[in-house]
Amino acid sequence: MTENAGVRILWRGHATVEITDSGTTILTDPVLTARVAHLRRRRGPDPMADPVRPDAVLLSHLHADHTHLPSLALIENDVPIVVPRGAVDAFAGLRVFGDRLIEVSAGQDVRLGSVTVRAVPAVHDGRRWRRGPQRAQALGYVVEGAASTYFAGDTALDPAMADWVPRCDVALLPVGGWGPNLGPGHMDPESAAAAARSVAADVSIPIHFGTLWPIGMDAVRPRRFHGPGGEFVRRADAAGLRAVELAPGEAFR
């Protein structure tokens, strides 16, 4: 990625990122409210204080902190929404968005404005709820324009990651979660640093940490909330990789 490529990454917190490339703005997993069920936004500005006007939305999977219907309803009603194949049948709440929905499978490309988005696998439970059939697989996405930006969504480290994404200019990698414990299907800072090497990222940016936290648990394991981004950057630096930690609301070009 060259300095004049005109690519801008704005982290709005958690897994919500604006990727602006070649004049097209892609918004990932939008959470634009102060609260998601039992989770409260604890850090960063109100996302709606700065108007959110994407050209398209990408949803990685159906969990409520990634497919958040109230936040999707805040986005202009002509914006296309890319979802994993089977998501509409698995979660009827999406049907309100009608023909704006574009269902994709891993390996499939879709053209959105001036960029091409390729869906890639993710190792994560893609269901809306913990029980029931797995009708829609979790996905990551690679946004290709002036640069190549890998949005991993939620995923565990997988040996095949280098096959999914052989290289990229920017990797947006989850390094934590929204509670004091990190369950399966996630990466911690150590495994995220290994992922950054696997996808040969020129620069990696940690996401999915330090934004949402359960109500009433502010004092429970605060390092799990604040620490993963900095720890990821330290591990990446030690491995000779470039990484940048953003604060919610901060942008990187």
TrEMBL record:
Domain Metallo-beta-lactamase: 13-186
Organism domain of life: Bacteria
Name under which the protein is recorded: Outer membrane protein romA
